[in-house]
Specification:
The complex is a heterodimer of chains A (about 210) and B (about 300). Chain A is mainly alpha-helical and about 210 residues long. Chain A has helices at about 15-20, 25-45, 50-65, 75-95, 110-115, 125-135, 135-145, 150-160, 165-170, 175-195. Helix content of chain A is about 65%, strand content about 0%. Residues about 1-5 and about 105-120 of chain A have low confidence and may be disordered. The model of chain B is unreliable at about 155-220 (pLDDT under 50). Classes of the chains: A mainly alpha (about 210), B mainly alpha (about 300).
Chain lengths: ~210, ~300
Amino acid sequence: MTTYGVERPGLDENALAVAAQKGDLNAFNRLVLVHQDMAFNLAYRILADPDSAADATQDAFISAYQAIKSFRGGSFRAWLLRIVTNTCYDELRRNKRRPTVSLEPVSSQEDEEIENPSWLADDNPSPEENVESRDLVEAIQHCLQDLPDEFRVVVAMVDLEGLDYNEASMAMKAPLGTIKSRLARARVRMQDCLQKFRELLPHKFRLEDEEI
Amino acid sequence: MKVSESSKIWVQVSSYLDGELSTREKEKFEQKLHTHEDLRHAVKQMRQTRAMIRSIPHQRVPRNFTLSPSMVAARQPRSRILVPALSFASAFAALAALVLVALITLRGFNPLAASHRSAAENAQIVAMEQEPTQGQEGPPQIIYWGGPPSVATGMGGGQEIVGMGGAEPQGLGGAPVGGQDTASEPPPSAFLPVPTSTSKEAAPQLAPTTEAALPEEQPAAPLGATQPDQEKMLAQSDQTLDNSTGPILGIRPTQQEGQITIPESEAAYALIPEPSRNPWIIVYGLGGLALVSAGAAIFVWRKRRG
């Protein structure tokens, strides 16, 4: 977990936000520079696609600037992440309504493509992939994508972006107990999912007495 | 303690690892840790899972997301009023249509014709009153009270005449034909009170107009009435008609004979095509408005969501 999302000493976010509320775009851009990594990574964990995450991040910052007058103080990071999260949810809903169609060319080689449908492969990793990839990051990312959206968001906020429970509660507009429950259940699911990738786990992450 | 069966324990374990338990909760939880091997194992498992998740490297941002004035200006804030306004209009129109349907069904309420109904009925009554003057031909109907007179009466007849037009000079048509008993039938105006100021030629024209009203409004003198009583009644009738300023007892002024006068507002109402008075048109209009506004609200909402 990195700490670039944490407020920097000497940077008065509330003062910058107040200046942005008065139309100071430069002040808002300073806030953008502070939080863009966190915003992009959250979007990336939710959408699992760098291009979609970049678009969603840009849209979220524009929306944040247009709605800056609704910021009433408190954690600017939590306020901003709520906008990023909502933008990503909109993108997810849009994708569900209009699933993307592969641009794979339809030609005389169609039979070959069907025989080798790598782009139609199931999300679940095959045993061969488990042996071959040996990539812990991909395994974790795969398990993250298996989580329900609200579970994935709370894991991304707390475990990846370092928000505390109160900030996550503000960012998700959910009660504190809901955040605790979702996070615990998400971690249990991640734990169960990662058991399938036991061979990928570094020794320090393996339980001595764990059963497969 | 079976940790896997209790999600509440997992919440405590997760919160304990994140330092989100209160001091009291933390003390109680740590006491359990000393006594429950399963709980220690659960804490260890979740700690490792948590560490694995947090080990994911962050992605580098592909570009700066700072805003330029053109980017901000390119996407103006969307109006937040349109969708609620359309939704409200739809709901209001639907509600109004329902209320109107209920009124029409239960009470026969007609918002279009209600304000004009009395006027229309009045116009119809006026037309009906004028109807005999327009279409009737032939001799007017004569109504006798108490049966036909036993003695034929002629205008300006003898002592036994019944009704108006007796020997007295005030009687109708008394002067021209008075005293002639040769008339087997009385002329149409024989029993009608006519203003004395009316010319002799006008009397026959008035007769058809007033015949229907005559029995009700001005009945002939009862058979038992004495001669002085009859004279008194005739005198009162003449006096009243001398002061005539408008239709009295169904008799209209001479200059308005044969005319049907309808007030302007009633005439305008009569020109309205019949279908437009149908109250269901309003219901259909409100229903259409509700559907259109609801469709527009859904369209705008979906368009904004992409």
